[in-house]
Design brief:
By secondary structure, the protein is α/β, with parallel strands linked by helices. Among the domains are: 130 residues, Rossmann fold, CATH 3.40.50; 128 residues, Hypothetical upf0131 protein ytfp. It has 16 helices and 17 strands. Strands 6-7-8-5-9 form a 5-stranded parallel β-sheet. A 4-stranded mixed β-sheet has the order 10-12-15-11. α8 links the parallel β7 and β8. The N and C termini lie far apart (90 Å). This is Dynein heavy chain 17, axonemal-like.
Length: 549
Amino acid sequence: MIGHTAQNCNLKYRCIKCTESHGPGECKIKKEDAVSIPKLVELRKKLNEKINNAKKPKIERIAQISHKYVPGLKFADVAKQGRGLNQAIKDSPQLTNISPRLNQTPNSAPCLIDPEKAFKNTSTLPIENTKIPDRSTLILYLVNLFRCLVEEKLGSKFVESRSPPFHKSFEGTSSITPIFFILSPGVDPLKDVEKLGMQLGFTFGGRNFHNVSLGQGQEPIAEEAIELSANEGHWVILQNVHLVRKWLPTLEKKMEQCSENPHDDYRLFISAEPSPDPHESIIPQGILESAIKITNEPPSGIQANIHKALDNFTQETLESCSKETEFKAILFALCYYHAVLAERRKFGAQGWNRVSGELTINAEMEDLQNYIMMDAVPPSWTKRAYPSELGLNSWFTDMLYRINELSNWTADFNLPSSVWLGGFFNPQSFLTAIMQQTARKNEWPLDKMCLYCEVLRKTKEEITSAPREGAYINGLYMEGARWDVQTGCIMDSRFKELFPLLPIMYIRAITQDKQDLRNMYECPVYKTRSRGPTYVWTFNLRTKERASK
């Protein structure tokens, strides 16, 4: 649990940490028979004696601690700030097998020791009649015990899982001192390298940042990148060097050659996964000794995960949004949700809790389920929405388009260059607003005005700005006819072309006495193909045929 002494400790490269990966559990401790902290080794011996001398009339379950857990059970003279740690570890007996009687299950066992009562006098630690439900309970008890000791004697910074920023570790590098990343699941430290390189002017686009992912046939490319970077002062990343085990001695020699007279700006970054066997290392000793070794484990706990997620956003990013309060609230909710998902990974294949049938499903919920399964819009949604005949998938996509259209419009409150008329919940209000604006400007009576429609020969992409009067509209389709751009009038529809799209239309308000109805067809506009109650307006479109046709 305690990796090394804290005396003369530099937090940039060293950290005392009590791990939590040894399993959950709880213990019960009484306050009699206290043991002095300066000799914590006796605590372990006393624990062994009480377990071995315990009565064993009936063993319900056996808690085994195998040899792989023994290295984690190390004791230190904390009162002397870590002095004599190595000797204490050597003198401690091997804790290999424990067979306690299980009087209760872990879930019903009393809670952990109260730190305020246990550490009120920091020179003593009470332990008596320890009841150990299983192996994991003992492990977690010792982990939490030493976490409290380390936090009490050395400070909370030694037990926090937050790692220092990468630029602090980068300050210790040089052209002859590379950085060696020990990869952990769920963490990509190379993103920090790319981010720092962008700040210092080393980018892939500038061709002074090289990234080589090692694998079959990539060794010559990596050697060439190292030589080029050492001569011209570039950065180079070698990813997953553990995959090319036979090439690693060559890499060690290449690093020695390039360290003789390298460019001052030259930096080398290496990443590899840890060896599955702790007694075997595939990385040459020369590479490890010359490099700064960094491991960035995933944060443990909701608080640490939230801090890790929020660290990705700078103060400038938080203040860049016009709605700063709403943006911060949404960002915190997103980071909290991400932290919950990250913590749920510890449950493995157990997954999330499902509905156990205790919730009563009413008729509305059942109808909602049926409509979603049939890819249809539920009536409970349509009665609060706009008229539509689309399926659920297309309806939802159409709704997102409407939201995007309104969001772009309300961002600066200026009339768009071309307005999607079908995207309004109530298109009549927009058309009426055009007449009202013109009526107020020219002091015309509103009841003596009408709309003039002109179909242009332009597409939506060709319209760059809104007109001075009226508006350009798009998104209208014709049924039973089509608009001929060459002649500028209505023509018969083509074969298999049921709903041709109308070009951009220019709508402006005029007085009724200036309205020309010759060779015009009064074309009704509806929201949907069902027509009926979805009527919107009547546009006069030019035609060469009789209106009765």
